Sequence to fold (250 residues):
Amino acid sequence: LRLAAGLVEAERRGELLLHYQPLLRLRDDSVVEAEALLRWQAPDRLVPPDEFIPVAEETGLVVGLGRWALQQACGDLAALALPGARLAVNLSARQLHHPALVKSVEAALQRSGVDPASLIVELTESAVVEDPDAAQSVLGRLKALGLQLALDDFGTGYSSLSYLLRLPVDILKVDRSFAADLAADDRTRRLLGSIAALAHDLGMSVTVEGVETEEQLAAVRAAGADTAQGWLIGRPVPLAELRTRLLASP
Ligand code: G
Ligand code: G
Ligand code: MN
Ligand code: NA
Fold:
């Protein structure tokens, strides 16, 4: 409850911030993309999202936080002013089903003036599964704005191949539990190779999350994935550090 009360004030007090985790494009080993991850600088400590996102989700506060994150990421994208750079923002189930979502995404794009194609919106299958028909319609309207859609945490929980056919997804983000098993387990490597082939066949690109070792990265390359994300590539960092990384990239 204290947490929820603090969260209400967090945005007004300017205590929210975004860190950006870089992604490696395997085709040319360049960094052109990053995922925005919310942080809350509470008066006494930096609160990680796994502590406050679930609370925010339950109380509905996530709608406001999410809108703030979208606007901030679009503003950051404009401030980067690097052609080709792309930023991804996470959407929660509550946000997906909020009636004002499409309008607020549209407003964030217009206000910042960024190319809609440089914004990626990530959502999980669990956000879709509650009401797939409604989700499909909202995602169609989001896609019509010109942005890219990513299916997050793929391969866990609610996975259903039918979502891959029904939803207008551009990027499949394979859950980090797969990366963890890559080095030791040949069957996981084969499964990842098959997932990548399937996704490519359907016109989607593939990101593998949670890449922590060179061995895992080599397996991700061998499986034919397009992009790698994880601590080996980089930890989430403030925008200025991301900018340096993007500028230094081949
Ligand atoms: O940053 P990790 O480092 O701890 O993120 C934990 C979880 O919080 C992830 O599952 C991520 O999807 C979620 N998360 C991070 N930032 C946002 C955000 O801006 N909006 C929503 N809805 N979820 C977020
Ligand atoms: O949106 P999503 O649930 O995918 O959020 C990414 C989460 O994964 C964040 O909590 C982020 O801090 C975490 N993460 C990113 N890279 C790694 C990694 O290499 N290993 C582990 N264990 N977690 C990671
Ligand atoms: Mn994500
Ligand atoms: Na994920």
